[in-house]
Write a structure and sequence with these properties.
The chain has about 210 residues and is mainly beta. It is about 15% helix and about 40% strand. It contains 2 helices and 15 strands. It has a 6-stranded antiparallel β-sheet with strand order 3-2-6-14-9-10, with no helix packed on it. Strands 1, 7, 12, 13 and 15 form a 5-stranded antiparallel β-sheet that branches. Strand 2 and strand 3 form a beta hairpin. The radius of gyration is 22 Å and the shape is globular.
Length: about 210
C-alpha cells in the first residue's frame, strides 16, 4: 500500500501529463462541400482551436475555413481557405497560461484534377500564434501531392501555434495531431515533495 506521503507527488506528476488529441474533419461527415468548419471545432479542455482565412498581409478576410468531402488525394475530408488566393489559418492555443501546445503532425494533400498532378503550396508555415512573424518551420514552396497526403511532423511547442497554408484552395489539411506539453515542475515543488517523503520515512524510522 502506498504511503500517504507519496500522494502529493503522484498528484503533481498527473497534473503535468500531456493530453493528446486529433482534429479529424471526417468526424463532421456528412456535410455539404463548402460548409464552414464549426467554430472551435477540435477544441479540448486544455486547448482552444480557431479557424480563419487570411489576406496575404495577415489580416483576417473570413473568420472561418471551409470543408470538402473527398478528392484531396486519399483524404476523406479536408479543410481549406474560404477563397482561393487566401491563406488558411488554424490556431491552437493552450488555455492555461502556464502550458504549451505541441504540434506533432498534420496531413496536407492537393485536389488533383486530371492526372493526379501536384499543386504548389506557395505558403506553408508553422508560426507562433501570438506573433506570426516568429516562424517555427517554413516548408514553402512545397509541391503538395495529388495522389497521396503528405504528413508533416513539426514537433514544435509553444503557448499558441498557428498552421498557415496557401494560397491555392486546392490544397487542404486534415488529421492535426497535438498535445498539451508537460510543464516543467519548479525545483521548489520537487523540493517540497521530497521533504514530504523524507518526513514520512523519518517518522517511520522513529516508530521502529
Amino acid at each position: 500500500m502506498l504511503s500517504k506521503k507519496l500522494y502529493p507527488l503522484i498528484l503533481i506528476t498527473a497534473a503535468f501529463n500531456a493530453q493528446a488529441a486529433t482534429i479529424n474533419f471526417d468526424a463532421l461527415q456528412p456535410f455539404d462541400n463548402y460548409a464552414p468548419v464549426p467554430a472551435g471545432y477540435g477544441s479540448t479542455a486544455d486547448v482552444a482551436v480557431s479557424y480563419s482565412s487570411l489576406n496575404l498581409n495577415g489580416t483576417t478576410a473570413y473568420n472561418d475555413a471551409l470543408l470538402w468531402n473527398a478528392g484531396y488525394a486519399t483524404l476523406n475530408s479536408a479543410a481549406f481557405a474560404h477563397t482561393s488566393g487566401l491563406l488558411l489559418s488554424i490556431t491552437l492555443t493552450a488555455i492555461n497560461p502556464n502550458q504549451g501546445v505541441t504540434l506533432e503532425s498534420f496531413d496536407v494533400a492537393a485536389y488533383p484534377g486530371p492526372g493526379n498532378f501536384t499543386r504548389n503550396a506557395s505558403d506553408l508555415r508553422v508560426v507562433d500564434g501570438t506573433n506570426p512573424t516568429n516562424i517555427f518551420v517554413d516548408y514553402a514552396p512545397y509541391p503538395v501531392p495529388g495522389d497521396a497526403p503528405h504528413t508533416f511532423t513539426p514537433g514544435v511547442t509553444a503557448h499558441s501555434i498557428r498552421i498557415i497554408l496557401g494560397t491555392d484552395w486546392n490544397n487542404g489539411i486534415n488529421n492535426i495531431n497535438f498535445n498539451v506539453a508537460a510543464v516543467p515542475v519548479p525545483g521548489a515543488v520537487w523540493l517540497f515533495g521530497s521533504a514530504l517523503v523524507g518526513l514520512g520515512l523519518n517518522r517511520k524510522t522513529r516508530k521502529v
